[in-house]
Amino acid sequence: MCIPTRTYLTFNNDKPWFTAKLRHLRQAKEDAFRNGDRVLYNQARNTLNKKIRVAKRSYAKKLENQFSSNDPASVWKGLKDITNYKTPSPSTEANQQLAEDLNEFYCRFETAGITPHAPSEHTQPLTPSETTLFPPPALRISEDDVHQVFLKQKRRKAPGSDGVTPACLKPCADQLAFIISQIFNRSLELCEVPACFKPSGSYVRLLFIDFSSAFNTIIPTVLQTKLTQLSVPSSICQWITSFLTDRHQLVKLGKFTSNSCTTSTGTPQGCVLSPLLFSLYTNDCTSTDPSIKLLKFADNTTVIGLIQYGEESAYRQEVEQLAAWCSLINLELNTPKTVEMIVDFRRNTPTLPPLTIMKSTVPTVESFRFLGTTISQDLKWDTHIDYIVKKIQQGLYFLQQLRKINLPQELLTQFYSAIIESVLCTSITVWFGSATKSDIRRLQRTVRNAERIIGAPLPTLQELYTSRVRKRENHSGPLTSRPSPF
């Protein structure tokens, strides 16, 4: 049997609107050029240009409909076609054995015979201390005494640890004497020195913990016990346990599919319940020391220790207790990816001893990307803003491509808000106030570039910051009182 075939010639720079009919017209134009027929060439060229404009308008209308129907997958597919983006081929060749190995790797936390653990000392909440009766102060400081001390200050002297210069204290003695005397007398009444009055000798150690396949380690029976302790109805607890047990899992790698295996550990990948269940699973992990703070967001856990006068025993003990607690509930610390950052602004910074977890030394880093924000040990935002500018420039390229196909201004603005402004406003309430003027100008320059592409005014960086601050204020309520320094 003879099957007819037809050969099509395609080009890498062909755009998605360049249809087969346009290819035929382009071929006719090239044939007329090679034959030297000037009249036929002009006709073919004009026809091709006209049809290209029509095809572009048609494709722009298609993208507009995809925007209006909230279909981001189709929009990004169209952008990849417009920009000739090619998905890089995988570096590892797919085969059946690799699929089986991956399936076995994902099920490595399947452990039989694990029973719910008893709450440890590390998981007990702190109990409030009893009310302390303070003796009456034996010393009171008068306003005149403070006033005289301020007037005796020498303007050229260097400031103390608080950074307030004598050149400021002496001329403001009349205004500050009453306030300072009240603060000192209140301190004497409470028998407590405010933290800001103590000599500076503190620094902060931040431990960014990485878990190995965190969602795959949840033991349903342990989770059920924890949910019961949180007063979750027993029927819901049993339903969740049934959902997590006896699940069938396999790995599909290209055209290869592994054998199915049954697992009763962990939560399904991509399940909307997985982050919530993991948060409940680790809810009882709390700090037992007031100088140590545990920040948890889904499977991201950070230990923040305030080290005063070089005393690190509480911080190191807390880390050891956390590692022991993880082993009790089947959590596996990924020590090679667990890093530490030290924030230390002391003048003479000594070499600090490294932190060790399970006989592995934790490496220290100068910056770390935490929940989408790059934090540096000098608390400057240059590295984070460099990343933002790079991401915005990528978005501006796609915005230019959409502008070339005559997408309406309204949809261009919508694309800017979703792709570029969302990156620009990520944690803007945290870094904007501390960013340098040059960094603010760099970011504002990208906003102006977007304005030129769209052809419409856009909110400035200051306006975006103000709107986000007001939203946070409305969400948390108005600030009615300020915290006491004690």
From TrEMBL:
Residues annotated as domain Reverse transcriptase: 1-375
Alphabetical list of SUPFAM superfamilies matching this protein: DNA/RNA polymerases (SSF56672)
Alphabetized GO MF terms: 2-oxoglutarate-dependent dioxygenase activity; methyltransferase activity
Annotated InterPro entries: AlkB_hom8_N, DNA/RNA_pol_sf, RT_dom
Superkingdom in the source lineage: Eukaryota
PROSITE patterns (alphabetical): RT_POL
Coiled-coil region list: none
Protein name: Reverse transcriptase domain-containing protein
The organism of origin for this protein: Hemibagrus guttatus
